[in-house]
């Protein structure tokens, strides 16, 4: 993003009481821009702050949309994503409207060609992921978002045909992607800010503060200063606890996230991500899903589910045969997933497959494969338990 676009963002933020550290600059990169220290920054530096009155919430979006679309439009039934995404879209549709207050922020967002979430993949890129959970999650997301888009489009076109013509799927997708990749939980606006997302939390956008990229484990704090909502004293600030050397990038910390979530929501991955997980679903266990991490973390829950299938009754005590059958069933399920999982080694960059997508694909598939392989080892350990149980009964088990 050019400095000619980012300079108005900084000026706009500061006019309303926001802040961007004077010793950071925005550096152009393939995915948009990164935040780099122009001088050495000491620990506990406040990098940016956003006044509450500039935070984009579903309520602020609702007020603006109601002004433009009228009370007859069923905006109250729209989801936070529909409201905020449509609000962002109108900044591209209408050049000048008093209800649209975030022009400098929207102008600073990366263009659509910079976005790398799976809904922005080429057909060949998406095909790479076929056989993985992420492939199905991408199709589910596109279906859900298209339903929301059609509802918004119909309402907008009913008010103004020209607005409806300009409110395209591509425009909505771009706005919704910015929301998914930049949103924070509304719990940050509480007097005790938190990145956790309880059921009553909603996505919000923090102009300026959301500019920093992610680094796993980076020590950061969110600080809320309270006054009246419209007061410049009411702000959300991001403080970085590590010193940043001149020329180094300043990072936020989005929290512990697996590559599946990073790719689907943000459009990037981490190599050998320690937080990688795979979601397993067992048929016959009421469609229950389990999330298993590296080194078979949380695999005991999966095992309990498989073993329960073998027992039939919750009060039954498992026999060695139950253990062996459950271990065999778990092994078969995991090996089936391994067989379906695509291989990264055969992928080459070409006209329909971009290099950064290949990098995401390789990191994701490698993590999925390593988790599944750890589950095979876990299942074999349970098989050994079954064999030991049989020996205690004087039975020697011979496995094929």
TrEMBL record:
GO terms for molecular function: protein-lysine N-methyltransferase activity. Residues 22-255 form the SET domain. It comes from the Eukaryota. One of its GO terms (cellular component) is nucleus. Gene3D superfamilies: set domain protein methyltransferase, domain 1 (3.90.1410.10). This is SET domain protein. It comes from Roridomyces roridus.
């Amino acid at each position: 993003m050019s400095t000619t676009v980012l300079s108005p963002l900084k000026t706009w933020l500061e006019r309303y009481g926001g802040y961007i550290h004077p010793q950071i600059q925005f550096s152009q990169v393939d995915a948009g821009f990164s935040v780099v220290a122009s001088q050495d920054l000491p620990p506990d530096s406040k990098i940016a702050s956003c006044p509450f009155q500039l935070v984009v919430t579903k309520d602020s979006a609702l007020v603006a949309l109601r002004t433009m679309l009228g009370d007859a439009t069923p905006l109250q039934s729209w989801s936070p994503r529909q409201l905020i995404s449509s609000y962002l879209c109108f900044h591209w549709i209408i050049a000048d409207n008093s209800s649209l207050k975030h022009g400098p922020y929207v102008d600073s967002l990366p263009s659509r060609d910079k976005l790398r979430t799976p809904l922005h993949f080429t057909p060949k890129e998406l095909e790479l992921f076929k056989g993985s959970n992420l492939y199905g999650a991408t199709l589910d997301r596109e279906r859900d978002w298209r339903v929301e888009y059609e509802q918004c489009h119909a309402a907008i076109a009913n008010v103004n045909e020209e607005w409806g013509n300009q409110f395209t799927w591509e425009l909505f997708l771009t706005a919704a992607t910015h929301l998914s990749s930049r949103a924070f939980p509304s719990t940050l606006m509480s007097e005790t800010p938190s990145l956790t997302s309880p059921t009553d939390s909603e996505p919000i956008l923090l102009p300026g503060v959301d500019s920093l990229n992610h680094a796993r484990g980076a020590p950061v704090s969110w600080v809320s200063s309270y006054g009246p909502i419209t007061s410049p004293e009411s702000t959300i600030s991001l403080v970085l606890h590590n010193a940043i050397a001149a020329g180094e990038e300043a990072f936020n910390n989005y929290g512990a996230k697996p590559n599946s979530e990073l790719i689907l929501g943000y459009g990037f991955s981490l190599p050998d991500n320690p937080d990688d997980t795979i979601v397993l679903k067992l048929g016959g266990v009421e469609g229950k899903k389990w999330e298993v991490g590296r080194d078979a973390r949380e695999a005991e829950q999966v095992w309990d589910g498989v073993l329960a299938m073998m027992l039939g009754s919750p009060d039954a005590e498992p026999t060695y045969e139950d253990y062996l059958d459950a271990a065999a069933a778990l092994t078969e399920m995991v090996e089936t997933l391994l067989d379906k999982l695509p291989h990264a080694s055969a992928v080459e960059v070409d006209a329909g497959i971009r290099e950064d997508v290949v990098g995401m694909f390789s990191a994701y598939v490698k993590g999925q494969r390593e988790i599944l392989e750890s589950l095979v080892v876990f299942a074999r350990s349970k098989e050994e338990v079954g064999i030991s149980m049989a020996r205690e009964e004087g039975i020697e088990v011979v496995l094929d």
